[in-house]
Design a protein that fits this description.
heterotrimer; A alpha/beta (275); B mainly alpha (299); C mainly alpha (276); B: 299 residues; mainly alpha; MetI-like fold; 12 helices; 77% helix; C: 276 residues; 2 domains; 11 helices; flat
Chain lengths: 275, 299, 276
Amino acid sequence: MATSTPAVRLRNVYKAFIGQGRTARPLLALEDVSFAARPGEFVGLVGPSGCGKSTCLNLLAGLTAPSAGSVEHHGAQVAGVNTKVGYITQDDNLLPWRSLLANVELGLEFRGVPREEWRRRALEFIELVGLGGFEGHYPHELSGGMRKRASIIRTLVYDTDVVLMDEPFGPLDAQTRVILQAELQKLWERDRPTVLFVTHDLVEAIALSDRIFVFTSRPGTIKREYRVDLPRPRDVFRIHETTGFDDLYDALWSDIRAEIQRARQGELQAVEGSR
Amino acid sequence: MGIETGARVTALETPLALGPEAASGSARVLADELARRDRAVREQRRFLLIARVGVLVAIIVGWDLASGRLIRTFFVSSPGAVARQLADWIASGQLLYHGQFTLTATVLGYVVGSVAAILLAWPLGLMPRLFRITEPYFLVAYSIPAVAMGPIFILWFGLGLTPKILLAAYFVFFIVFVNTVVGFQQVPRGLLDVTRVMGASRSDLLRAVILPSAVPYVLAALRSTLPAAMIGAVVGEFIASNRGLGYLANAAASEYATEGVIAAVFVMALIVLAMTVLLRPLSGALRWQRGIDARGDIV
Amino acid sequence: MTAVIAPGVLADALRRHERSVRVERAVVFGGIVALGVSVLLFWQFALGSIINLRYVSTPVDVARSLLALAETGDLLQNAGVTMTEATAGYLIGVTVGLVGAFLLLTTRRGYEVLEPYVLAFYSVPKIALAPLFIMWFGLGPSPKVILAALMVFLIVFVNTVAGVRAVDRGLVDVVRVLGARRGQLLRVVFLPAAAPAIMAAVRVTFARAMVGTVLAELIASTEGLGYVIVRASRQFDVATVFAGVVVIAALVMTVNVAMRAVERRVFPWASRPVHA
């Protein structure tokens, strides 16, 4: 793929989950998944619900271990919680008892960054996403979009070279979503970290990514890889007018539609079989 | 959005360009609606006030009329007799003397019980396995009606203040204990995951995530248990004592002085009410919390 | 190829999971037993060197007292008295609480008018009324039954009212638009929606009935488990006091377990905390 070491890499990864309780049935979430992301690359992960996209991010964050295969970060195996990556979840997961500023400073504090530097960097990022003036507000006093901005800069502020984003804009309304996509692109252009971006929204995936991996339905594996050659910087507000958008969108959607149908047939068979 | 695709969309400058009189019209509608609402709220409030005061008056008057006519005074005494008894106690300093004793036991028991509960719940809340091992024993202990511990404490520590403090502490202990453990165990998984990836060490997690998220649970318990402490103290006084409000009630009962019993119970109820009001700010103490939690709250 | 590896991965994961579950279960169970046994052993053999055994007795003595109580028939008779009083009070309290709440809820603003009084009554430590009832009704079962009923009544009442009032406004509106009248609304929406809250209150209050009964017995009585405890404590017979406490705890636990089983059968979809 590339000559340099990839920023992150999954090699022949399998992941099985076993539910709680006595009648725990094992469930294969990932089956022989292999992919890699180059340093500075923005990679979109799309696929039907429950296909294991988020599991890939959890593996890279070291929150869970693979059942087989290897998970690598800059060529080194991920073992235990991986604090060298940034991890942004669908829920903003801000600490409700800390003000916006204190939330943004959290990672710097944990990482032993000198105290004088916290405030300066936190304020810089807060200004960058237009949250100036809200530093003292608690999360519940902010709107959904503001909280989302806060949770993004909270991760970017401590400057990791890999950022994992798990459907970060999922719960937002359509307009806020596009605005935040534009802001995310701007922030990404600044330091160009490697981003793995899980989403259900194909338009969002095309608008932001350099490459897109499409997952099959469960057990998830990589079905296809797409290169997004649209020039940067992109106008996310008019991305659908860009030449080449339609073809890419159609191709992605037909892939996913096929997977959804396959999954439904599988479910029907399972129900039939259990009768 | 799809502006290039043929048909032009013309935006109206002012969607409802109907002139100034229309604007004043909507202002009038708004004002009317507001006035209507205010009127309804006022009427509702007046009705409630009148009805509530009416019920109170009816109770007192009914009590006074029934006493000695419909029901023997022995059973219900009378409002006047109870008031006289209270005035007597206040004047003679009895109320202060006995009230002090009960309040001391209550407050000390409250502190001892909650501190013990928090200190024990802390490690158990953080170590799920240890908690599962000790849980059955806590369930057994929890099933013992707290009052049944009264004779034991009195047996151990005699008639003085100590058994009352312990009984009050016992009444408080389990409520605070259970809430604290739950508080420690209910830290949202997502918060823990995210902060761990951010590089939080174990002590960071405890300080920045686990402790703060347990605080509201502990506060809720601390808020609702002060009355429980007083009940514990009073129970101790009922069983064996020569001082305290519980003793006062019991002594009056043994002399068949109904007004004394009712007056003592009335004072206790007032104290509990005062405690509830006094501790109410505990639930609003945390600015970061949305709304007020309802657990242990009087509905 | 993948189809060959996948079953292996699954089987491995399952095996690992099962092993960890087994280990965990063994550790917890072993821990429970070890803890219980060591506490009993300590109490039996070591506690006496710290505290005078006159104050704490020993597990063997407690068991012996329990046996002695059982042999003479004292245990069965007094437990029967306490259980009868508590159950009678409990049933009265639950009935009055439910009926009272529904009567009040069928009136338009009844609850709002009475709210401050309900609150005030809620603040009265019901236990504090014990001397009053004993004074009125003497040493017999009535003061115990009344105190037990009183301990139960308000909790059931308040939770029923709260459960009904907490029903989702949207649900009520939809059913009203569908044309339901007041009575129908109560039957179709309010009752089922409030049922779990009510059931939970009904379940946890038996312990309170026991508290009321035992307290009244402690203060003044001639029979019942509370009486057994007080009598023994006057004779400084610590072992029998503990035996009595053990029996009470066992009764409360048995009733709790039974009611929880019933509740799970009747309302499998919900169990929730109570205002108590």
